[in-house]
């Protein structure tokens, strides 16, 4: 465990607050929050400090009330309270001194090349705590930021955990179904945006008369508008499969049905010529026998 030290002045490149998502303003958290500290579980304390800084920056950006800085916290607590290691009782006391609704603390551990946040929020008024574990967070900036934000909302505002899809199609009148529920026909209202959807995968089905149906698993990300381009193909249209089909070169005059048919026609013609004018005529071919 590391002491509640002041956050380094230089914030690492990946620990920057995320830009506001497309498709409208975010729903701000309406709780007064203080971040106590994150402890390291078998990993480099500097990495933990970076993730703590990222978590603090995200909460500070998303909360309506600015979070107390580390300096503010240290100036209002006693020396004994600085040694608080995450117990509900001492965090509740710290929260009352800071005049906040929740005090958030946590631990950071490693899972292979990823990180896992175990976060606890203590409600100051009651001393009760809520806990959550984040999914494994990868090292890319976008995924780290989204993972930290989802963890914060999962703990403090689970009813605000949602995202949006934008259904884009140039076909008019196609029926759109999401997870088995009809949501309308194209073009959908609100520029095709389906808002406030649960995070994760959803099954999208689009169908129209005389067109092959469109089926896909689509991902909804936290407070983002994810576009889905739907192109329906006519049911009688042949779509390339990427495989090369080789057709045998079999000339028509080599095919059995053609040889047999041609022979019958030839005999009929010869017979007709031979019986013309009531006379039987014989044609001798070179090298053939006589009539």
Which helices and strands, and how do they pair?
Elements (H helix, E strand, L loop, with lengths): L32 E9 L3 H18 L7 H7 L11 H11 L3 E10 L2 E10 L5 E5 L7 H16 L6 E6 L6 E4 L2 E5 L7 E5 L2 E8 L3 E2 L1 E7 L4 E5 L3 E2 L21 H19 L17
Parallel strand pairs: 1-2, 5-12
Antiparallel strand pairs: 2-3, 3-4, 5-8, 6-7, 6-9, 9-11, 10-13
Helix pairs in contact: 1-4
The coarse overall form would be: elongated
| Helical percentage | 10-25%
CATH topology of the largest domain: Rossmann fold
Radius of gyration: 37 Å
Number of strands: 13
- Classify the beta-strand content into a percent band: 25-35%
Within CATH, the superfamily of the largest domain carries the name ABC-type transport auxiliary lipoprotein component
Which stretches are poorly predicted, pLDDT < 50 over at least 5 residues? 1-25, 240-254, 278-285
CATH class group of the largest domain = Alpha Beta
Number of helical segments with 4 or more residues: 5
SSE order in H/E notation? EHHHEEEHEEEEEEEEEH
Class based on secondary structure composition and strand pairing: alpha+beta
| Strand line-up of the largest beta sheet | 1-2-3-4
pLDDT averaged over residues: 76
**What is the straight-line distance between the termini?**
118 Å
Number of domains: 3
CATH architectural grouping of the largest domain: 3-Layer(aba) Sandwich
For the biggest sheet, the summary is: 4 strands, mixed
